[in-house]
Amino acid sequence: MILVDSSVWIDYFNGRLNWQTDRLDQLLGNELIITGDIILLEVLQGFRIKKDFETTKKALEKLECYSLCNRELAIRSAENYGFLRKKGITIRKTIDTIVATFCIHHQHFLLHRDRDFDPFEEYLGLKILHS
């Protein structure tokens, strides 16, 4: 399964072209793409026009949606954050730590456009889709 981060969805729905949005376009309908509750929130909260919000909501509702954090994953996320801090790496957003930890725990691939995920790949085994 492939979890697509909000960084890619936001570009995709805004019509920004990059290798990540091209890859997402190729994957849709051909691979099992999943989303998460927090990702859904991040994507949808950016819409100012109700019609765009509703169209995007309908599109994303077709994907299987997972809860990305529970007690166990919260603790693992904190441990992963601490591990990276000890290496001198500060992850800017807690949500990125949760997304990465969810993917690591469930062995899902992640498609992203956010440098905060790179240390999770390098040091913690996060599986990333590359170009």
> Percent helix among the residues?
55-70%
- The tally of helices reads 7
CATH topology: Rossmann fold
Mean pLDDT: 97
Report the oligomer.
single chain
Order of helices and strands: EHHEHHEHHEHE
* Count of all domains: 1
Task: Classify the secondary structure makeup into a structural class.
Answer: alpha/beta
In the predicted model, the low-confidence regions spanning at least 5 consecutive residues are none
CATH architecture title: 3-Layer(aba) Sandwich
**Proportion of strand residues:** 5-15%
CATH domain class: Alpha Beta
CATH superfamily: 5'-nuclease
Query: How many angstroms does the end-to-end distance come to?
Result: 17 Å
Could you characterize the architecture of this molecule?
By secondary structure, the protein is α/β, with parallel strands linked by helices. The chain contains seven helices and five strands, in the order βααβααβααβαβ. Strands 3-2-1-4-5 form a five-stranded parallel beta sheet, sandwiched between helices. The longest helix has 16 residues.
Protein traits:
131 residues; Rossmann fold; alpha/beta; single chain
Q: Summarize this, please?
A:
Helix content is 56%, strand content 11%.
